[in-house]
Amino acid sequence: MKYNPDVSSSRRKNRKAHFSAPSSVRRKIMSSSLSKELRAKYNTRSLPIRKDDEVRILRGKYKGREGKVTQVYRKKWVIHVDRVQRDKSNGATSPIGIHPSKVVITTIKLDKDRRAILDRKDRSKTAQPVATEDVEMVDAY
User: Fold this and answer.
1) Where are the alpha helices (DSSP H) in the chain?
2) Which of 115, 45, 55 is nearest to 79 (CA)?
3) In the structure, what pLDDT confidence band is assigned to residue 2 with cuts at 50, 70 and 90?
């Protein structure tokens, strides 16, 4: 059910918004989940993928392969992973595009901006328990 009147639930409009999204929005959409170890360490489920992250492919013909992200191709909604390529008939190699939702990040390329994102997304800081004082209920007649 639709709760927000400002958001369309039309399939046509949603597809148009998705496929004509600007690069800044595509970055957010092209996120990958973190591995169990990283999820426990940073208390975050997913992160927008970037070049030099190391990933493990979870689906498709190249399932189980690990490698470094060599390119994030936002225009085509894919990432290129090191050593995941096919040989062409003329002898050249061409990288295979893989959707970021089908990989898991195993090593994060950390810099100060990425560290700030992880600190901001840290769920252990945001999920602080509410004060546990007992409150007496009073009948208001």
Assistant:
1) 11-19, 23-29, 36-42, 112-121, 123-126
2) 55
3) confident
